């Protein structure tokens, strides 16, 4: 089964709160948990948590934990959650959505406006989902900008958040236009598309430079990382993870299963 997705090469995306920008952090260790005997899991979990504490204490020399230390703790927490058979719950938060708010099935997407596979899902698969299921599903769009490979991922996410804040009904036409114009992404395009979708230019420009808008994108990113997301597109269908630009048939099967379970 194909799982076409955008993933940073040999690195993990992490958000740098102190500088309000993204950076990359090299992955040092990868554990293959499935190869461990079940009787090793409990002591290994204890050792992992204890070791991480000592490691961070040693790295910091007793100082306050830095953002890099926090990133390490998040990575450890994600590994522990995966061993225990789950990950932190992913919510719709207050992000843009299509369909019905009372739908039995919620599809949450973490996407990057420069990701070609996100473009494929948004322009080919999502219309099929909404046509077949309509108000039976709720599709929620959240941000996961891969800035190490996509320089317009963060500015594009911020621009889309601004459109949503100023004129919520314009969000999906605007964001779909971004996916359709990935080769022309930039501030000139963002401003032009915002205005053409009924957004006041002065309000858009003000929002585009607002710390609160950046914080909203950061929250999406951090929520995704805590849930184990490291590539785009990444979906959660009633909490079940689905990775990559899967064909409609795969989404159809997962949505049907979720509807059956909700009966």
Give structural notes.
This protein has 263 residues and is α+β, with helices and mostly antiparallel strands. The chain folds into 2 domains: 31-83; 97-262, Glutaredoxin. The chain contains 9 helices and 7 strands; from the N terminus they run ββααββαβαααααββα. It has helices spanning 38-60, 67-83, 116-133, 153-166, 171-180, 187-196, 201-208, 211-226, 248-262, and strands spanning 12-16, 21-25, 97-99, 105-111, 137-143, 234-237, 240-243. Strands 3-5-4-6-7 form a 5-stranded mixed sheet. A two-stranded antiparallel sheet has the order 1-2. α4 packs antiparallel against α5 (171-180). Residues 16-46 and 52-86 have low confidence and may be disordered.
Task: Map the helices and strands.
Blueprint: E1 12-16, E2 21-25, H1 38-60, H2 67-83, E3 97-99, E4 105-111, H3 116-133, E5 137-143, H4 153-166, H5 171-180, H6 187-196, H7 201-208, H8 211-226, E6 234-237, E7 240-243, H9 248-262
Parallel strand pairs: 4-5
Antiparallel strand pairs: 1-2, 3-5, 4-6, 6-7
Helix pairs in contact: 1-2, 4-5, 4-6, 4-7, 4-8
- Largest sheet data: 5 strands, mixed
Strand order of the largest sheet: 3-5-4-6-7
CATH topology assignment of the largest domain = Glutaredoxin
By secondary-structure content and strand pairing, the structural class works out as alpha+beta
The CATH H-level superfamily of the largest domain is Glutaredoxin
Distance N to C terminus = 29 Å
Strand content: 5-15%
Overall mean pLDDT stands at 78
Note the run of SSEs as H and E: EEHHEEHEHHHHHEEH
CATH class annotation of the largest domain:
Alpha Beta
Q: Give the number of helices.
A: 9
By DSSP, the count of extended strands is 7
Tell me the CATH architecture of the largest domain. 3-Layer(aba) Sandwich
Task: Give the % helix.
Answer: 40-55%
- Give the C-alpha Rg: 20 Å
Instruction: List the uncertain runs.
Output: 16-46, 52-86
Shape: globular
User: How many separate structural domains?
Assistant: 2
């Amino acid at each position: 089964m194909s799982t076409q997705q955008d993933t940073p090469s040999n690195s993990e995306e992490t958000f740098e709160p102190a500088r309000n920008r993204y950076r990359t952090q090299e992955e040092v260790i990868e554990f293959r948990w499935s190869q461990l005997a079940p009787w090793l899991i409990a002591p290994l979990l204890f050792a992992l948590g204890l070791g991480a504490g000592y490691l961070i204490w040693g790295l910091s020399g007793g100082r306050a934990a830095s953002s890099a230390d926090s990133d390490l703790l998040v990575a450890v927490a994600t590994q522990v959650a995966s061993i225990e058979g789950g990950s932190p719950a992913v919510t719709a938060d207050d992000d843009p959505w299509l369909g019905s708010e009372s739908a039995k099935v919620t599809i949450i997407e973490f996407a990057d406006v420069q990701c070609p596979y996100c473009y494929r899902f948004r322009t080919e698969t999502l219309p099929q989902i909404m046509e077949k299921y309509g108000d039976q599903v709720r599709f929620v769009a959240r941000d996961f900008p891969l800035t190490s490979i996509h320089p317009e991922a963060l500015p594009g996410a911020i621009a889309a958040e601004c459109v949503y804040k100023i004129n919520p009904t314009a969000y999906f036409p605007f964001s779909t236009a971004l996916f359709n114009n990935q080769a022309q992404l930039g501030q000139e395009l963002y401003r032009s598309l915002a205005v053409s979708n009924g957004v006041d230019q002065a309000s858009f420009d003000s929002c585009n430079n607002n710390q609160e808008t950046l914080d909203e994108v950061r929250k999406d990113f951090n929520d995704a990382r805590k849930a184990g997301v490291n590539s785009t597109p990444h979906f959660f269908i009633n909490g079940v993870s689905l990775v990559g630009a899967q064909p409609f048939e795969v989404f159809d099967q997962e949505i049907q299963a979720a509807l059956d379970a909700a009966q």
